[in-house]
């Protein structure tokens, strides 16, 4: 079973975009008929829709998307169920207790908050966030990739400690996947593998991905 964790980029459907970031647009440049084929010109930001953040997003000399070790991005996943958090609620290390034995070097830790149900709505911005202690403990265990069904793993509803989780994960050569969806369908998968392969962008502080997860 393959679960698609990717929001559809749409010019007509719901979309959530970080304030100030480019959104998605598509313009048809060739059309059947009279042209022999259909072609579109698309425009989007490196952090539009379901995407990953490379270290270069926050680290001046960090790795760019085209330089990432792809083995980081196709790996065993641990999907942590943290649904039921209040808006802007904190995800603590205690919330990971049930999965702690599975969190070992090289796994991808994914936080299922259920917040993708608010995609395209104002409430999407009021997502739960990961406490920086969680990021630090994950890095200490050899985890370099995390993801969630939210704008960000960080708290952005006030000015306290902005982007701390980004700085811990990306500062240790890791990767963050954001705006995932359908994570509820991945909770019961046995020994799941996740793929977060991005567009190969040489100027890549981030890039859209077609995120999927599956069981053997």
TrEMBL record:
Stated name of the protein: Putative cyclase
Coiled coil: none
Gene3D superfamilies xrefs: Putative cyclase (3.50.30.50)
Taxonomic source organism: Coniophora puteana (strain RWD-64-598) (Brown rot fungus)
Annotated family: Belongs to the Cyclase 1 superfamily.
Molecular function GO labels: arylformamidase activity
Any one GO biological process: L-tryptophan catabolic process to kynurenine
UniProt cross-references to Pfam families, sorted A to Z: Cyclase
UniProt xrefs under InterPro entries: KFase/CYL, KFase_sf
